[in-house]
């Protein structure tokens, strides 16, 4: 049984590697079931057995590619300034898109309402971690959800815009300007609780709420609802 499981894992890795090579060389259209099975040295039914369908294979390729990208960026550690960390994360996203256009397009090029591909979910979680640290520092003046959506929308838009241009025409300062405009729209120069009004305090408290272990789950949920109402009203 163990040998069968190991063989299945080896087949899965071989198929993903073959599909990733085809994607890089010829784009999504090159990743046909026939081409992948030939490149991986497996029968086509094995692809369906392991991944369900072609979309399942493409999702696995994108997730694998993005995971490897993050592993190569282990030096991107949180610093003392979460806003600067977000700037670094933005640059990471743009570099990933330009270095891996086919993979980036696979992640974001064909939105599926109601279904988030694994790689896109991992990328959003990565972004959300940056936003959450800004909120914990009291420097976010919109909700974490609103901030993450805005950064994601403008960041992916900037990436696709640059990807569509010939390399010699790409102007990365446009991406930098978009980044700085978004950051200015969602953050404050000083911790939000220092400014008058309850919204900044509500955002910061909401970010720290998971650490309030003295409260029951029900009490945290109720307080979180109240804080969210304060943020939205602001």
Automatic annotation (TrEMBL):
The keyword Coiled coil does not apply. GO terms for molecular function: DNA-binding transcription factor activity; transcription cis-regulatory region binding. Residues 9-69 form the HTH tetR-type domain. The keyword Glycoprotein does not apply. This is TetR family transcriptional regulator. It comes from the Bacteria. Residues 32-51 bind DNA.
């Amino acid at each position: 049984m163990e040998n069968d499981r190991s063989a299945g894992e080896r087949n899965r890795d071989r198929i993903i590697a073959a599909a990733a090579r085809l994607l890089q060389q010829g784009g999504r259209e090159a990743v046909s079931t026939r081409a992948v099975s030939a490149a991986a040295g497996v029968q086509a039914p094995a692809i369906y057995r392991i991944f369900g369908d072609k979309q399942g294979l493409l999702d696995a390729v994108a997730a694998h590619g993005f995971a490897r990208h993050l592993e190569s960026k282990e030096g991107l550690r949180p610093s003392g300034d979460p806003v600067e960390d977000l700037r670094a994360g933005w640059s990471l996203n743009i570099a990933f898109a330009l270095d891996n256009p086919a993979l980036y397009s696979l992640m974001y090029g064909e939105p599926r309402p109601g279904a988030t591909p694994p790689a896109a979910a991992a990328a959003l979680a990565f972004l959300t971690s940056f936003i959450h640290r800004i909120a914990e520092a009291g420097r976010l003046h919109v909700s974490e959800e609103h901030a993450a959506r805005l950064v994601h929308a403008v960041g992916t838009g900037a990436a696709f815009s640059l990807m569509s241009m010939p390399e010699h025409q790409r102007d990365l300062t446009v991406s930098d300007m978009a980044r700085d405009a978004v950051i200015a729209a969602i953050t404050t120069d000083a911790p939000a609780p220092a400014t008058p009004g309850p919204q900044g305090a509500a955002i910061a408290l909401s970010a720290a709420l998971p650490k309030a272990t003295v409260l029951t789950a029900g009490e945290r949920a109720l307080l979180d609802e109240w804080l969210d109402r304060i943020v939205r009203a602001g």
